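Can you make up a protein sequence with its backbone structure tokens?

===
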Amino acid sequence: MCGIAGIVEREGAEPIREAQLRQMLAMIRHRGPDQFGIYHDEQAGLGNARLSIIDLSHGQQPIANEDETLWIVFNGEVFNYVELRPELEARGHRFRTHTDTEVILHAYEEYGPECLNRFNGQWAFAIWDTNRRELFLARDRLGVRPLFYTQAEGALIFGSEIKAILSDRRVSAELDPLALDQIFSFWSPLSPRTAFRGIVELPPGSYLRLRDGEVTVRRYWALRYPEEAPAASSRSTEAYLDEFRALLVDATRIRLRADVPVGAYLSGGLDSSVTASIIRRHTQTRLDTFSIAFSDPQFDESEFQRTMARFLGTEHQVVYATHADIGKVFPEVVWHTEVPIMRTAPAPMFLLS
């Protein structure tokens, strides 16, 4: 997890001040405690709070292309960057780092918004084009990585969390009554709304362009459903299971590309147990697993967790939560989620994290 933030001012406005960007990053420093990085010119500023995962020594952001006409800040991981890089190098692109961040930048330089269809991963990133004076924001297909923005006094202000946006004096923290109605109905606002009036999220599977003061948002990906049921397939159930198994193993293995140790959540249930099992069976990766246990036996599943950890032979670690622990951290959880919460389930996960 990293954090990004930035501002693009209208033409003729006062120049971007580094102090503005520092304040935005200070609000999200918990997302990236390893490094801070800032780029700014008279019209635009980008900031990144980095949690180092790939190329620990040379991956500080923002990162520029060869002639420094494009600058990027990025939160997430593009898992297939290893395969994409040689293709870009063959087309003449030159790299200074071994990061997935730089692969994204050169892919955008080569393919424009179409680059998003080539990425396998989860991302929220911002690219500033110094020649065209154009901002490009993009979010992964399912919206795993957050990205919010607003417009105030002619400026576009964005960040991985709303609190970074609210640090700008031009933005007020007003609750949106319609969003509150959605929260009480569906447990969360419906995209692109947030709990705050005038602050929206970039929808999953979408990108935003800002040029000459005009904002356009376009969807580049969506689930597709056939209008009619397909004809009966000649493939057997076993064939579908084999394909599913291969996809699941590949999806797990490609997520292990990191220059730091990898851990896995182990709830004792089916999904986390299968993921941990794939890691142990198909890789040589040393695996730490982590679980949450409850003092209340009505909710505690620690016996299932210990059984699975023993079976897999992982380095297992447990965090114990009481009702008092959950109540104590709940205000902090709300501060991080930035939305009214209708249940306490995020609190134990927060303690574990």
Q: What stands out?
A: The radius of gyration is 22 Å. The first strand starts at residue 3 and ends at 8.
